[in-house]
Amino acid sequence: MKIVIQICILLLIGNLNAQISFYIRPTVNMKTNQGNIFGSWRTSPIYSTMTNQYFSITNDKMFFDNGFDLGIHLGVKIRENHFFELGFSGDHAGIKTQASKHEWSIDPYTTDPSLQIVRRGGNHNQVSILGPFNRFSFNYNNLFWKNNSKTIQVRGIVGFGTLNSPNVNRKTGTYVTNEIPVFNIGELDSNIFNSQYVITSTRAWRNSFYLNAGLGFDFYTKKKQNYLFSFDLFYLQGTRNIQVDHHRIKINDNGTDVNFLYTFSSRGSGIYFTLSRRLQVYPWVRKKLN
């Protein structure tokens, strides 16, 4: 009986090994960025407009930048539909704000005297990109759908990891801070103008845990079913404010300086767009890479 059990185990292991392959997957990533008016990392992000007697300032909940990040993943494919990956990628965070000065003018499209005087805002956009960060990841992919010709296969993706900034040490009070000079808003009114606008951008945490989920699409040739490339689309949700921006704005009002400080932050969250190709390294396949 013991010999029979050992033979069954050996057959099972041999059958499983025949269905396991190892691969590496280089990636090129683009992402959207999210910023919010500063709050504790324990609270939900806040998206709103701050207004004073001189100007308003707000942030974009989500915006797309032109940055590219490269990465490499080590993966195990079990049977045809289970993929387990450890990955390392570059990453970045970003915050986009808009400051609008207040101007009173006449609305030419109404004859109602009570509605003719309106306040308009002049736009002043500013984007602050902080990086690079290291992104360490563990992902599980499950292949759950193929089209009839098997040229497109769809995977579900779930995973977790950390956004890492190695130069930050909160215990010793070590942070990475960049000062970004900004164009002034300009003249706000007669003898009232913006005399200074400076953004201080700080990496706030060494590590920020995150969760991600999305879909992956694998593309194959129709004739020989050769694997071409993959495109992944997923959302990443960070848990800590890895970027904190302080906007220091000085208004000169008839010779008197009035100072304002507004703070925005980013958890590194966003929607990711990833192009990649799995390169099978074991067992070696010369013509067809799965």
Cα gyration radius (Å): 26 Å
Succession of helices and strands:
HEEEEEEEHEEEEEEEEEEEE
Structural class: mainly beta
Major sheet, described briefly? 8 strands, antiparallel, barrel
| Backbone shape | elongated
How many beta strands in the DSSP annotation? Answer: 19
- Helix fraction bin: under 10%
Low-confidence stretches: 4-15
Mean pLDDT: 85
Number of helices: 2
Fraction in beta strands: over 45%
End-to-end Cα distance: 39 Å
Strand order of the largest sheet: 1-6-7-9-10-14-15-18
Folded structure, characterized:
This protein is mainly β and 290 residues long. Helices cover 7% and strands 63% of the residues. The protein has helices at residues 2-17, 113-116, and strands at residues 20-33, 36-37, 49-51, 55-59, 63-64, 69-78, 82-106, 117-122, 125-146, 152-164, 176-181, 187-189, 192-203, 207-220, 227-238, 243-253, 256-266, 270-276, 279-282. The strands form 2 sheets. The chain has an 8-stranded antiparallel beta barrel. Strands 2, 11, 12, 13, 16 and 17 form a 6-stranded antiparallel beta sheet that branches. It is elongated. Mean pLDDT is 85; it is low at 4-15.
